[in-house]
Amino acid sequence: MHARGSGRQRGREDALSRERIVAAAIELLNRDGEAGLTFPALSRHLATGPGAIYWHVADKGELLTAACEAVVIRTLKAVPAGATPPDTIRALALGMFDAMAASAWIGSALIRAESSLTMVQLIEPLGQQICALGVPKKVRWAALSALLSYILGVGGQNAANQQYTHAHGIGRADYLEKICAAWKQLDAQTHPFARSVAGELRTHDDRADFLAGVNLILQGMSTLRR
Amino acid sequence: MHARGSGRQRGREDALSRERIVAAAIELLNRDGEAGLTFPALSRHLATGPGAIYWHVADKGELLTAACEAVVIRTLKAVPAGATPPDTIRALALGMFDAMAASAWIGSALIRAESSLTMVQLIEPLGQQICALGVPKKVRWAALSALLSYILGVGGQNAANQQYTHAHGIGRADYLEKICAAWKQLDAQTHPFARSVAGELRTHDDRADFLAGVNLILQGMSTLRR
DNA sequence: CCAGATGTTGGAATGTGATTCCAGTCGTGT
DNA sequence: ACACGACTGGAATCACATTCCAACATCTGG
Predict the structure, then answer these.
(1) Which of A18-27, B18-27, B110-119, B144-153 has the lowest average pLDDT?
(2) Which are the contacts of A125, defined by CB distance < 8 A and separation ≥ 6?
(3) Which chain B residues in 53-72 sit with Cβ < 7 A of strand D?
(4) Looking at CB atoms within 10 Å, which of A92, A184, B78, B126 has the fewest?
(5) Fold for domain B71-222?
(6) Cα–Cα distance between B96 and B91 in angstroms, integer?
(7) What number is the average pLDDT over the span B74-102?
(8) What is the pLDDT of residue A10?
(9) Could you tell me if residue A134 is left (phi over 0), alpha (psi between -120 and 50 degrees) or otherwise beta?
């Protein structure tokens, strides 16, 4: 990457730009998942060569980070403000959940985020609500950290599941059915729990479970209130 | 991969075997992280060619899954049983935390785990304790799911941090210092929270925070008790 | 309007790693 | 000794990420 911040002189209307590249990257990522983002594919999509792309971005990692940041910012901006702290936290969490469900790649990209700057976009609003919730200063970071890890953890797992079903060309229902069957096969003595919940897998609602988890954490936080 | 399950006939003492390959993979992973596991490196390590390795394992993914499973099983076996449910859950969680801290690659490997079988190793004992905790049947899965996602989420983030510091050749302290400095640079109007917790970053204890998060979830679960 | 100077481009060249192929090797049963 | 099948090692393929570089466009000053 070279692009200086200095004098833009040109004005070709078909100009390549960091924005157009990031937009194309997001398109590829949403269509084919993390594996879909390759320089050959990107070059084809933008009708150019890899060299031109490297003029605007340092490497693939930076591209992923930029794409991730764009989506996260767009997502969080859409979350309405003004509700009670718990409701706002739920809205923020669900917003991220939905975004990560729609774009599985965000999960892994956000976690490996080289720039903690994207993460701040999420940390700040969550943190503010935790403060508003009355969580004592001493444990604010721990509380935030728990919430954040939970949100990212769920996102990561959903992403993994989606990637799996996508890669194997099977539907979510078939996937769950397969796991359910495998778990029911387990030994009753050593794996009573897995067997007992196997059935629920087929019908469970990821989003509802996620919300339940957020509520569990909120519930726990409420006991911290001074 | 071809290796049939049928007739082992040979007995060459220098024989390659799935076990030896997985052990070598774990060694490479622990030494150089996820990027350290390559077939050239593995071949060198085992003094053979890639073709021989492919006779025993299907592909890199299977190798990663197998390595992950081996470490997870070893880790969970070391967790003492017999304590109260909350204590056992804490012990299981901390066991995984420590394992993921020592072997950052487990985090990402476990999440992308193609085989839900490895995951069961973790789900089963956690689930049993949740039952013992008296969590109503209706919400057992949700409770487990929350705990699991949290554990994996923290592991994933720690892995990302370690990978970052390792890749950039800087220490954990320098890394935190850098983030702290960046956060203090933020606008006080828009990012009051990030600024206010920035200082804590430098001195916080990941393990303690993790435990606090587990306790938060346990706390929340206790309110579910019928 | 022309000659540099410079930002930009597209594609070729390089290097690395996953995966496949295949021509042996070695031990076993006959 | 012979044939067979499990196993091996390395060469051959392929798909990228990244770097290089020979044009090209546009602007600047004359």
Answers:
(1) B110-119
(2) A76, A79, A88, A92
(3) 54-56
(4) B78
(5) Tetracycline Repressor; domain 2 (1.10.357)
(6) 9
(7) 96
(8) 47
(9) left
Kindly state the helix (H) or strand (E) to which residue B218 belongs, with its residue range.
helix B206-222
Dihedral of the alpha carbons of B86, B90, B96, B99, in degrees to the nearest 10:
-150
- 3-class DSSP assignment, residue A199: helix
Q: Is B198 on the interface with A (CB under 8 A)?
A: no
In whole angstroms, what is the distance from residue B56 CA to residue B2 CA? 7
Burial of A114 from C-beta contacts in 10 A (0-12 / 13-18 / 19+)? middle
Where do the structural domains in chain A lie, given as residue ranges? Answer: 1-58, 71-222
Answer whether residue A151 shows pLDDT above 80.
yes
**CA B143, CA A42: separation in Å to the nearest integer?**
42
- List alpha helices for A33-80, DSSP H: 39-46, 50-56, 60-77
Whole-angstrom Cα Rg for chain B: 21
Q: Would the Cβ of B40 be found within 7 angstroms of any atom in strand D? A: no
Q: Is B87 left (phi over 0), alpha (psi -120 to 50) or beta?
A: alpha
Q: At which residue do the structure tokens 């099983």 appear?
A: B73
What's the pLDDT at A8? 45
Whether B174 has its CB under 8 Å from any CB of chain A: the answer is no
Q: Is the pLDDT of residue B175 over 90?
A: yes
Token pair, residue A3, equals 């692009």
A60 touching B, CB under 8 A? no
Number of Cβ within 10 Å of residue A52's Cβ equals: 13
What CATH number is given for B1-58 in this structure?
A: 1.10.10.60
DSSP string, B32-96: H-GGG--HHHHHHHHTS-HHHHHHH-S-HHHHHHHHHHHHHHHHHHTSPP-S-HHHHHHHHHHHH
Residue A118 Cα distances to A24, A62, A79, B15, B108, angstroms: 19, 12, 16, 49, 20
> Over the stretch B30-59, which tens digit does the pLDDT of each residue have?
999 999 999 999 999 999 999 999 999 999
Alpha helices per DSSP H over A133-171 = 137-168
Residue holding tokens 């004098």? A7
* Burial degree of B65 (CB within 10 A; 0-12, 13-18, 19+): buried
* Residue A7 pLDDT greater than 70, yes or no: no
Q: What is the pLDDT of residue A6?
A: 46
